[in-house]
Structure formats: structure tokens, C-alpha cells
Design goal:
The strands form 2 sheets. Strands 5, 6, 7, 8 and 9 form a 5-stranded mixed sheet that branches. A 4-stranded mixed sheet has the order 1-4-3-2, with helices on both faces. The protein folds into 2 domains: 77 residues, 2,3-Dihydroxybiphenyl 1,2-Dioxygenase, domain 1 (Roll), CATH 3.10.180.10; 81 residues, 2,3-Dihydroxybiphenyl 1,2-Dioxygenase, domain 1. It is globular and about 50 Å long. The protein contains 3 helices and 9 strands. It is of the alpha+beta class. A hairpin with a 5-residue loop joins strand 8 and strand 9.
Length: 158
């Protein structure tokens, strides 16, 4: 096996404080926040002369992390925040939540809006996409009832 785990998903934002507040309200914890700059960083990303503030957010189960980045330099190259869900490239992160209605009510106070509607999928999940701060696309999934082999067949083959 070559991959040990997925460490994090990165999202570039303009207002890192608002993004931290949003993901904290969603249930993630702030693991750390720091500036990143230097010649080594540009060699990793291919963006020379970068000055970035990074905030690492951790999911409550401790397994997933979200890296929020605000670039002070160089200027933002392009903006994909309003891309539709069928655009090419990385678009969204999906979070499992306990209560989708409660989550939407709390995040709505921070400006989140449902992309279209909350739907029930085969009495297994309630699902929706929302736009969070700066139009960031987030998926929310609430499991309904007991998990079955149909939901995760690989789990039952072990």
C-alpha cells in the first residue's frame, strides 16, 4: 500500500477569521494557526515569494483535517468559489453531521445558504450542499436509521 492516510484538504480563503468561525460552528476544532513563508514553501507549492497564514482545523473524531489558507502574497491567481458542482477540479468537502436541520440553522446565522434543497436518499441519508463563507461549497450528510451492507459493502467484506 502506498497511501497511509489523507492528511488534509486545503481551502484558500480571503477572510480566515470568518472561515475559522464557520468551521468551528460546524464542529471542527482549531488545531493551530501560523504564518508560512520562505524559499522552501515556494519550492513545495510552485508559488515563489508566498506569504500565507494557515489555520488547521480538525474534525471531532480526530481523523480529518481542513487546512484554511489566506495568501498575503502573491495576489490570488483565480477564483473558483462560484463554480457549479459539475465544474472540473476540487469543489467540495462532505461532512457527516448528527442533525442536518440544527447544523443548517447554526450555519445560517453565519451566512450559509442551501444550494438547492435538503433531500432524502433512499431513507439512508439526508443530504444537501451549502455555500459557506466566500461561497465555499460544503456537503452535509445525516445518516438515517442503522447502517446496512448496502451503504458500505467493503466494511462487511473484511
Amino acid at each position: 500500500m502506498t497511501v497511509k492516510r489523507m492528511d488534509n484538504v486545503g481551502i484558500v480563503v480571503e477572510d480566515i477569521d470568518a472561515a475559522i468561525a464557520f468551521f468551528t460552528e460546524l464542529g471542527l476544532g482549531l488545531e493551530g494557526r501560523m504564518p508560512i513563508e520562505g524559499e522552501w514553501a515556494g519550492r513545495v507549492t510552485g508559488v515563489r515569494g508566498q506569504r500565507v497564514e494557515v489555520a488547521m482545523m480538525r474534525t471531532p473524531d480526530g481523523h480529518g483535517r481542513l487546512e484554511l489558507s489566506r495568501f498575503d502574497a502573491p495576489a490570488i491567481a483565480s477564483d473558483h468559489r462560484n463554480a457549479p458542482v459539475n465544474a472540473l477540479g476540487y469543489l467540495r468537502v462532505m461532512f457527516a453531521v448528527e442533525d442536518i436541520d440544527d447544523t443548517l440553522a447554526r450555519l445560517g446565522k453565519l451566512g450559509a445558504t442551501v444550494v438547492d434543497e435538503v433531500v432524502d436518499y433512499e431513507d439512508l441519508y439526508r443530504l444537501c450542499y451549502i455555500r459557506g463563507p466566500e461561497g465555499i461549497l460544503i456537503g452535509l450528510a445525516q445518516q438515517l436509521g442503522q447502517q446496512t451492507a448496502r451503504e458500505n459493502p467493503m466494511e462487511h467484506e473484511r
